[in-house]
Amino acid sequence: MQKTFKIIDEDGIHARPATALVNTATKFKGTEAFAEAKGKKVTLKSILGVLSLGLEAGDTLSLITEGSEEAEALSALQDVMIKEGLGEIHE
Amino acid sequence: MSKISGIAASAGIAVARAFILEHPDYTITKSAVSDVETELAKLQDALEKSKGELQAIKERTLAELGEKKAEIFESHLLILEDPELISPVMDKIREEAVNADYALNEVATQFVEMFENMKSAYLQERAADMRDVTKRVLNHLLGIHYVSPAEINEEVIVIALDLTPSDTAQLNRKFVKGFTTNIGGRTSHSAIMARSLEIPAVVGTKNVLSLVKAGDLVIVDGLSGDVLINPSDAEVAEYKAKQEAYDLQIAEWKKLRDEATVSADGKHVELAANIGTPNDVTGVIENGGEGVGLYRTEFLYMGRDKLPSEEVQYNAYRTVLENMNGKPVVVRTLDIGGDKELPYLELPKEMNPFLGFRAIRLCLDRQDIFRTQLRALLRASAHGDLRIMFPMIATLGEFRAARDLLLEEKANLRAEGKEVSDNIQLGIMVEIPSTAVLADQFAKEVDFFSIGTNDLIQYTMAADRMNEQVSYLYQPYNPAILRLVKIVIDAAHAEGKWTGMCGEMAGDSTAIPLLLGLGLDEFSMSATSILPARSQISKLSAADMKEMAAKALQLGTAEEVAALVQSSVQ
């Protein structure tokens, strides 16, 4: 499953929300989670990976989940994106 | 035992074990290992220990400083668990049969470089987090015993070459009982911080760092400037008695806390405090401050990676005004440059920073920065008695330009429907001799003056106050300085305005009789100096001091002035 967001936080994705995303992705043990942006795909279970995307305000980011709890994981990740003021759903 | 002396920078006596604050050497050499499994186990062990430390720091920070400050350690923990970091390190150890510290450093360096090459300034600075985390693990791998000042969790005396602003910001006064340094003077950053934290300190000892080993028992006497290393039991007892006597004296002073400041012959003056952060207000209240005479707003801009927003500033100013409960609060607008740098502004290095692009000069040029601060201040004005002053004003034109920006933002806020007080006094710092000399002209347009003696003395005497070789020229009692102070006070009074002083001189027991005699209206000092000053002033006759000050102005040297004060006050 996948969902695309537009980054709205003026700092881009910085350490605190990246931490929240990684912590959330890590909770779903049997589900793989990835972030894809600017033609690069990284695991969402790595904070260095997420930060390495170098996301800034205006960039688009796709969150991808694969596995037994992919729907729950994607919905939890979406909550983090919205709650942290990181991004908005981009369709 | 040995005894050395330095400059008494912050009053009080402390007895505790030494904590050496030094930044260790992380030179790493590549070596071949025969037992890869042992090396991997070493790595695991170092990672686990580092995580344990971070977990403890995170919890302590959470409890003491709140969630915001603890977040950074949560990110550090995640980095140590990050498969993108750990797997390549393990692969490297296995495939190349190399030492763990080398493998870790190689992989971490790639991440540091990745961050440094990022477009966003924010992400570039994450390189520092990567280095920090790496060093923590390397400490265990290399057997380096390094504890950052933030992690001190037993009573110690910090021994250092010098303390940087970021070191002092991390000191926890619960555990750091005192500190002593090789370099610095009474007005250096570390000394000012020590007084604000109310920690005894002796600075400028020249060699304390080479004489003390970690764990040595040390006595810091911030009253005399003495430092005792491994004292005898008798000496410890003697100093503990001295400490108790000092505490008694403090208790005596505390009785004056809720009293007004009145001289023996009934002249009232105001004693205010210098603060750096909203947290300092507690100390102002505890020490009976009648106001805040100088709120240094620089700290809001320091220790972060971008400019503070209007909202962040508004909250800080509002907190100070509300906690001062209607008492006056003089806020100095941003005084950056000189010895206070903001890395994220990327200002060019200057040959002569104290004479360069700083304070109001920078603010009038970078109006985006200045207007944000003015808006935050104006909005906060609705919550107390706010007074605003501009630093480093050299010409009337600069004052007018700054005032006009303030008025523009005031009109803008009103148009936006925001509440702004109509009773904001607007003043200037007098710290440049040209402004002191022309005070009569300034007095027609400002509401008040605040004399910044640290800079006024430095600029009048043409002597860098950080340079120990010319520190003898830092002469607050020099008649040249006193005459400038008199010009400013008289000019204000002629226009029905008031003059304050917010430099170190305002709290100095030799200067106080002179300043009282010269007619100073407000004395702003470290919070801990307020009660001793109130006690001193209550015993002085303002009329006698006026006569004495008149004589002092006719003397030729600072020494003669000091001698005159000594003989008059006895």
From TrEMBL, chain A:
Subcellular localization, as worded in the UniProt entry: Cytoplasm
InterPro entries to which the protein is assigned, alphabetical: HPr, HPr-like, HPr-like_sf, PTS_HPr_His_P_site, PTS_HPr_Ser_P_site
Domain HPr: 1-89
Major subcellular site: cytoplasm
Domain of life: Bacteria
Assigned keywords, A-Z: Cytoplasm, Phosphotransferase system, Sugar transport, Transport
Function: General (non sugar-specific) component of the phosphoenolpyruvate-dependent sugar phosphotransferase system (sugar PTS). This major carbohydrate active-transport system catalyzes the phosphorylation of incoming sugar substrates concomitantly with their translocation across the cell membrane. The phosphoryl group from phosphoenolpyruvate (PEP) is transferred to the phosphoryl carrier protein HPr by enzyme I. Phospho-HPr then transfers it to the PTS EIIA domain.
Name of the featured protein: Phosphocarrier protein HPr
TrEMBL record, chain B:
Reaction catalysed by this enzyme: L-histidyl-[protein] + phosphoenolpyruvate = N(pros)-phospho-L-histidyl-[protein] + pyruvate
Coiled coil location: 33-60
Domain PEP-utilising enzyme C-terminal residue range list: 251-540
Domain Phosphotransferase system enzyme I N-terminal intervals: 5-126
EC top class named in words: transferase
Compartment(s): Cytoplasm
Enzyme Commission number, as recorded: 2.7.3.9
Segments forming domain PEP-utilising enzyme mobile: 153-225
Protein family (similarity comment): Belongs to the PEP-utilizing enzyme family.
Protein task: General (non sugar-specific) component of the phosphoenolpyruvate-dependent sugar phosphotransferase system (sugar PTS). This major carbohydrate active-transport system catalyzes the phosphorylation of incoming sugar substrates concomitantly with their translocation across the cell membrane. Enzyme I transfers the phosphoryl group from phosphoenolpyruvate (PEP) to the phosphoryl carrier protein (HPr).
The name this protein goes by in its record: Phosphoenolpyruvate-protein phosphotransferase
Organism: Paenibacillus auburnensis
